[in-house]
Amino acid sequence: MELPYAEPYKIKMVESIKRSTKNQRLKWIIKANYNLFNLSSENVFIDLLTDSGTGAMSDKQWAEMMIGDESYAGSSSFLKLKKVVKKITGYKYFLPTHQGRAAENVLFSALIKEGDIVPGNSHFDTTKGHIEFRKATAVDCTIDEAFDTSIIHPFKGNVDIDKLENVFKQHPKEKIPFVVLTITCNSAGGQPVSIKNIKEVSLLCKQYEIPLYFDAARFAENAYFIKKREKGYEDKTIKQIVKEVFSYGDGMTISAKKDGLVNMGGFIALNNKKVFKQATVFNIMFEGFITYGGMNGRDMGALAVGLNESTEFNYLESRVEQVAYLGQKLVDYGVPVQQPFGGHAIFLDANKFVPTIPREEFRAQALAVELYVVGGIRGVEIGTVLADRDPVTRENRYPELELVRLAIPRRTYTNNHMDYIAASLKNIYDSRNKAKNGYIITDEAPIMRHFTVKFDKI
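^ that's the sequence the OP posted. Answer follows.
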């Protein structure tokens, strides 16, 4: 008999989560103006809002927390993290920040000007927000296959090279400060980018003398997919693959709350000394001194350990395959999801799930709210609400995909929780034809509205 898979860890501590009734959840979501971000966490049974900073740290990470050096300048925890970052990424220069959007804020302040064009593969919300805040334009060059959830393509996060070159041809290089390549590509469904595609993007960028930067929040998960799916990398270690990936770029920003396995933190890593010196000015202005950048010494120590742990195959197999376990359960129930399954989340296809709700009534948001009411499960809309309004016309932007993301925190929930999630969604899917109406927005921020938006039910 073949032995079943078992997680490469054991549980040392548990945290209680509160059960609630459907009537209670209905009352709570109305009070939250139908915005899942406004819910109190104690009123959520299974929290899949994000995998950012919500995972469980290891015993070795907690041990490192105890010896954190909180010196303002030149702490030993900073030097420890700097050494690990260079070893894993290969980049010479390093600036810590308090999280990923802070890293974007620092680097983009140094590089982006009004009127610039920043191409990439389905920019994430904060990335696009930081670009548009500076009155620049983000241009999506993702392959077309990414926008059909039923197509099985091993690397749906790939950049379409023809689309990218067209952007290069249509604009002078002085107007394109860099290309941003997101690994894995969150907005496309947590989809990976192949090394073959990364090489092609890098070569084209060099040809047109345009820098290439990675949004590397889930770089380790991307490396896992390369090892599993790309010919010639089967026998490479995750760390070898990661090192090669980063060798094709000029630098990176990262939210370390994902593949860094910490609750707070981020950083910028670079090879260009001039860009590094420009970025240090903004790092000091926005974050803190360049050897802590908004992070505690103990968090930098935990991140140094986390980067090593997240780039080990056994950990990644456990993490990615739990996501796939949930995905397969949903497929077996007939629930439409982005396929193949992403590395950090399952993405429900709201266009196929509830086509009876008009797009202008935010069908993905309606599905996310229903999942909370039925099962106490908090996901997040990745659709029209997140796509925000066009900065010029102020009209809603309707992306090709309307998704609900179920982001799985790392080392946190068991497969029994995955079974519960799948059963809740099956019950909703079986009654989907009853869903006729969605929501209207009653209040929204001028940019990145999804965090604080208020709705009324139609």
